[in-house]
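Sorry to interrupt, but I need a hand with the structure work. I would like you to pick a protein and set down its sequence and fold. Please put the record directly below this note.
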Amino acid sequence: MPPTVRAFQHIFTTPALIEKIFQLFRRKNMQRQKKTGRKGMDLWHILVLAVLRHAIGTNWDRLHLMANGDKFVREIMGIDCTRFGLEEIEFEYQIILDNVSLIDEELLYQINTIGVEAGHQLIKKKRIG
């Protein structure tokens, strides 16, 4: 998981990169959007959980446990427990399933391609600089 976490860190701290990934997601899923009456997740949460699910080859039950109980995963997602009076965010199993499954293999491949290209750019910058 460390290379995945490092990739998340780079994506999160590079606004142009994260926007490029979110645009892919929005384009692919806008036609499938419908009102379900359930609370949703933001795009960063969906991205983190989808990538983790595939990176560590986990199932939906474990992903649900990680999203709600793994402090490290929650920190990557940008949510922390009730520190400083902030509301604790918990994700129901069905919300995770409905949202994370929107990132299919094709979209994950496109996201991965963007990440690899960004990694190549970093290596070029290190070699030049």
